[in-house]
Write a structure and sequence with these properties.
Length: 281
C-alpha cells in the first residue's frame, strides 16, 4: 500500500511555498494525486441582522476571505506546474474553517501535509491548533513541515521514535511507504522498560519492532538511549546527529468538544521540530 492521494493545506503564509514544494516532490515520488486545499472560513462567520451596514461589512469580509483563498490556489497551481509534476493535481476551495475543511478532505486522502505554526504570522494563516486538530480527528497520518528551512529530501533518512505505544505502532504502519523507500531507517528507543513481564519492549528493546520492519523489506538499525534531558530534545539531538530528513512518531492528545489538546511530547515536538515529522494518532 502506498500514498495515492496527498492533501496539502494552502494559506497566505510565507511558509506555504515550501509546504507545497515538499508535497509536489512526494506526489512525484509516490506517483500520487495531489490536492491543495484552501479553506476560506466564511462558514464560521457570525449571523448578521440584515441591516444594510452589517451586510456591507459582511460582504467585504467574504470577498477578502474568498480572494485570499483563490490567491493561494493560484499560487499552488503555478508552483506545481513550474515544478514539472507529471501527476494530476487540483486546487480546492472549502467554505469551512481550516480545521473542519482539512479533516473532511483528509478522510479521502492517504497523507495530510500541514505547516508548523508560526506565531510571527497572524494574517491569512491557519490557526495554531490546526496540526493537532487534524492529527486527532482526521484518522490519517499528518506530515508537519517546519516553518524554517528548505527540505530537498523527505524520507531518505528516517528516524523512528519507538515507545511501544498504540500511537507509535500506528505511525510506523502509516509511514510504511516512506520506510520502504528509505536509504536508512533508525529505530530510537529512549529510556526503555526492561524485563520479561510488564515491559513495553521485552528483553531486548527495539528488537521486535525491528523484526516487524525487516519483514516489510527494510533494514532497520536500533538505537537505545538513556537520557535525562527529555524525550523531545533527545529525539531532535539524534535526528541531527544522523542527518535525518524525517521523524516518525506517535501523536498524543485528547479532545473536549472543539478544544484540541496535544500531549506533552507532541506539543513540544510541534514547537521545536527542525525536520519534517510524520505523526499518527
Amino acid at each position: 500500500m502506498g500514498y495515492k492521494t496527498l492533501l496539502v493545506h494552502l494559506d497566505g503564509s510565507k511558509h506555504c511555498a515550501e509546504r507545497v514544494a515538499v508535497a509536489a516532490k512526494l506526489a512525484q515520488e509516490h506517483d500520487a494525486h495531489l490536492v491543495g486545499l484552501a479553506p476560506t472560513g466564511e462558514a464560521a462567520l457570525p449571523y448578521w441582522d440584515g441591516s444594510s451596514q452589517a451586510t456591507a461589512i459582511i460582504i467585504e469580509v467574504l470577498d477578502a476571505l474568498q480572494n485570499n483563498a483563490r490567491t493561494a490556489m493560484a499560487a499552488f497551481d503555478r508552483q506545481v506546474v513550474q515544478a514539472g509534476l507529471g501527476r494530476p493535481h487540483e486546487a480546492r476551495l472549502d467554505r469551512n474553517d481550516a480545521g473542519i475543511a482539512m479533516i473532511r478532505h483528509a478522510r479521502y486522502s492517504d497523507l495530510v501535509i500541514v505547516g508548523q505554526p508560526d506565531p510571527v504570522e497572524v494574517e491569512n494563516v491557519a490557526p495554531p491548533q490546526l496540526p493537532v486538530e487534524v492529527l486527532l480527528n482526521a484518522g490519517k497520518p499528518v506530515l508537519m513541515i517546519p516553518k524554517h528551512g528548505h527540505f530537498e529530501t523527505v524520507g531518505r533518512r528516517v528516524l523512528v521514535a519507538w515507545d511501544g505505544s498504540r500511537e507509535a505502532a500506528r505511525a510506523i504502519t502509516d509511514a510504511m511507504p516512506f520506510l520502504k523507500r528509505a536509504d536508512r531507517v533508525v529505530v530510537l528507543v529512549i529510556n526503555p522498560e526492561y524485563g520479561e513481564d510488564g515491559s513495553k519492549h521485552g528483553q531486548e528493546p527495539g528488537a521486535d519492532i525491528a523484526l516487524f520492519l525487516a519483514r516489510h523489506g527494510t533494514k532497520p538499525e536500533v538505537l537505545v538511549k538513556t537520557t535525562h534531558i527529555g524525550i523531545t530534545p533527545s529525539i531532535l539531538t539524534v535526528a541531527s546527529e544522523l542527518a535525518a530528513d524525517l521523524i516518525v512518531m506517535g501523536g498524543y492528545g485528547h479532545t473536549r468538544l472543539r478544544e484540541f489538546v496535544a500531549g506533552g511530547t507532541t506539543r513540544s515536538m510541534l514547537n521545536a521540530m527542525a525536520v519534517p515529522v510524520l505523526m499518527s494518532h
